[in-house]
């Protein structure tokens, strides 16, 4: 793996950093308090090509490699995890799945819209009764002539109330577990699809998280993506790459924690000198720095494997597990450096900690990542 970035990757990172400094960071605290990111951000992300990274240009994407995608995702995560999540889901989970699994008609219909930001995508896997055990989902899609009629409830859906299309997973067959699951691209204005925003989240407050209730939602058979019974493969392949995206966002949180802690330690004085002079404060900062580097290198490794066509699924779980736990540790250590001031929303570290906390939960909890890594190494499935 070559750790030197290409000119193009360096330029991409600079573009993302400038964008975040201008359009995201100054508003992040305000959006957090208001429980809503300004929706205009979607068009701005699209205009810069950030919603089409790695998607082929002939479908409206901006092309590029996965390391470039990781660099942009880290910068967005550094500025605001709620904004980063919009991209990770609409592009990372939905558009990339359409590019990988969609029919020519589905690609031509959805990809240009998703890549430009004209449309937003959401990923509907989790249900009230099935989170980690997604293969037991109960939403049903019943074939009726040249259509499917879908009923069920999805919960915790990122971008849920903003989205124009949901990549939805539903049971079409009678086979138990993952074999009976199919994937559908369901327009969110379909009659019978109701959305309810979920409030009161610890973090990611700027992000629209929703419950989706489907009552006899009728979609043409052409809305099914990939063959019947292949839906779980679609979901798992999306999440394998999605975990790299979450890891990159976590590197961004950890880097933001490091920047804030170093700055504050050089300003705050106690015992007649700046707290940077106290060795135990330096320990907190060095612990954050080691976590940032380790999480970043593990995340880059995933992108490198994808770009070189190597297996990457276990590596993606390793990166997601480490980077998400590291983001929580780093934000906590940064808050410690800030002392009591870190506990108020006058400074950004409290929000970093709240936003980091969900990273060990979604796209597979830390426990589930450990089982996936253990399965890859031993060949034995604990599920
Ligand atoms: C803010 C937010 C956004 C989200 N966005 C999306 C989205 O866009 N789309 C989507 O589909 N989902 C989304 N999710 C759902 C998320 O992926 C699930 O919450 C997650 O998979 C965990 O499921 P659960 O909450 O039902 O927990 P559970 O599965 O009930 O787990 C509870 C606890 O039990 C542990 N556990 C479960 N099974 C095992 C096991 N076999 N061995 C050891 N421990 C186990 C877990 O690790 C956890 O600690 C989101 C969630 C949140 C909070």
UniProtKB/TrEMBL annotation:
Family matches, as Gene3D superfamilies: Acyl-CoA dehydrogenase/oxidase, N-terminal domain, Butyryl-CoA Dehydrogenase, subunit A, domain 2, Butyryl-CoA Dehydrogenase, subunit A, domain 3
Keywords: FAD, Flavoprotein, Oxidoreductase
All residue ranges annotated as the Acyl-CoA oxidase/dehydrogenase middle domain in the record: 122-217
Cofactor requirement: FAD
InterPro entries (alphabetical): Acyl-CoA_DH_CS (IPR006089), Acyl-CoA_Oxase/DH_mid-dom (IPR006091), Acyl-CoA_Oxase/DH_mid-dom_sf (IPR046373), AcylCo_DH-like_C (IPR036250), AcylCo_DH/oxidase_C (IPR009075), AcylCoA_DH/ox_N (IPR013786), AcylCoA_DH/ox_N_sf (IPR037069), AcylCoA_DH/oxidase_NM_dom_sf (IPR009100)
Domain Acyl-CoA dehydrogenase/oxidase C-terminal: 229-377
Residues of the Acyl-CoA dehydrogenase/oxidase N-terminal domain: 6-118
Family: Belongs to the acyl-CoA dehydrogenase family.
Protein name: Acyl-CoA dehydrogenase family protein
Originating species: Streptomyces coffeae
């Amino acid at each position: 793996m070559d750790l030197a970035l290409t000119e193009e990757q360096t330029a991409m990172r600079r573009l993302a950093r400038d964008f975040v400094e201008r359009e995201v960071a100054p508003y992040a605290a305000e959006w957090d308090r208001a429980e809503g990111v300004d929706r205009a951000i979607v068009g701005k992300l699209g205009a810069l090509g950030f919603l089409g990274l790695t998607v082929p240009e002939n479908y409206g994407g901006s092309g590029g490699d996965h390391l470039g995608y990781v660099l942009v995702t880290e910068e967005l995560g550094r500025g605001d995890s709620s904004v980063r999540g919009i991209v990770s889901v609409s592009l990372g989970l939905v558009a990339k799945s359409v590019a990988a699994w969609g029919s020519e008609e589905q690609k031509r219909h959805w990809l240009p819209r998703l890549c430009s930001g004209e449309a937003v995508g959401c990923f509907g896997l989790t249900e009230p009764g099935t989170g980690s055990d997604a293969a037991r989902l109960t939403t049903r899609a019943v074939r009726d002539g040249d259509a499917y009629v879908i009923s069920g409830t999805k919960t915790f859906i990122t971008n849920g109330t903003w989205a124009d299309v949901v990549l939805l997973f539903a049971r079409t067959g009678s086979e138990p577990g993952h074999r009976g699951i199919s994937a559908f691209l369901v327009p969110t204005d379909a009659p019978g699809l109701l959305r309810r925003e979920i409030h009161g989240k610890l973090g990611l407050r700027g992000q629209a998280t929703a419950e989706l209730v489907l009552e006899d939602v009728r979609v043409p058979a052409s809305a099914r993506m990939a063959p019947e019974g292949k839906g779980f493969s679609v979901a798992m392949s999306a999440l394998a790459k999605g975990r790299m995206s979450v890891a990159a966002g976590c590197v961004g949180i950890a880097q933001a924690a490091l920047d804030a802690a170093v700055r504050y330690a050089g300003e705050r004085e106690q015992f007649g000198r700046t707290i940077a002079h106290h060795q135990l404060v330096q320990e907190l900062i060095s612990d954050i720095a080691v976590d940032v580097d380790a999480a970043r290198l593990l995340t880059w490794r995933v992108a490198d494997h994808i770009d070189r066509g190597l297996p990457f699924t276990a590596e993606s779980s390793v990166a997601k597990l480490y980077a998400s736990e590291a983001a929580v540790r780093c934000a906590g250590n940064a808050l410690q450096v800030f002392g009591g001031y870190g506990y108020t929303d006058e400074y950004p570290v409290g929000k970093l900690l709240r936003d980091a906390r969900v990273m060990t939960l979604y796209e597979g909890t830390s426990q589930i990542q450990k089982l996936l890594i253990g399965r890859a190494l031993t060949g034995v499935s604990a599920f």
